[in-house]
């Protein structure tokens, strides 16, 4: 495994920043062993919120990157249910309606997570929801989400 990904997994921010300072191209590297994930995907998937913020400050465009499954970093944070990472990605402008290769948005995945707090934050930051997302929230048993989502505009 490449040293940049080891630093991310270990949440070693000084080592990560040192590697990027030596070679800025580390921000472009993808982990082929982990679904062709970017450094931001890896940090989001491990729930390393502070590292997520640092990566976005260094290369903001990574919030729109997709892995081999079409997931953005927000998809992974939503599925993990990590409140801080979800909040950070939403504050930096991650798209809430982007679909992965299975036609799932981050909202679909946050409904599957066990974190009602992450789901609440997500629902508060989302302006529009699709009928499919409403149906999914209901069918997945996320009834607490329905109250938030019914207040949104449908697209």
TrEMBL record:
Gene3D superfamilies: Ankyrin repeat-containing domain. ANK repeats lie at residues 69-101. SUPFAM superfamilies: Ankyrin repeat. The keyword Cell inner membrane does not apply. GO terms for biological process: cellular response to lipopolysaccharide. Keywords: ANK repeat. PANTHER family: NF-KAPPA-B INHIBITOR BETA (PTHR47303:SF1), PTHR47303. This is Uncharacterized protein. It comes from Brassica oleracea var. oleracea.
């Amino acid at each position: 495994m490449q040293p940049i990904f080891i630093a991310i997994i270990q949440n070693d921010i000084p080592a990560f920043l040192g590697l990027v300072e030596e070679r800025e191209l580390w921000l472009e590297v993808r982990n082929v062993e982990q679904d062709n994930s970017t450094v931001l995907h890896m940090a989001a998937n491990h729930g390393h919120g502070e590292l997520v913020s640092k990566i976005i400050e260094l290369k903001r465009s990574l919030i729109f990157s997709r892995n081999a499954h079409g997931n953005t970093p927000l998809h992974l944070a939503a599925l993990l249910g990590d409140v801080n990472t979800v909040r950070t990605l939403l504050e930096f402008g991650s798209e809430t309606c982007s679909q992965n290769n299975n036609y799932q948005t981050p909202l679909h995945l946050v409904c599957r997570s066990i974190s009602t707090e992450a789901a609440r934050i997500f629902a508060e930051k989302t302006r529009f929801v699709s009928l499919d997302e409403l149906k999914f929230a209901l069918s997945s048993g996320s009834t607490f989400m329905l109250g938030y989502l019914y207040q949104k505009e449908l697209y």
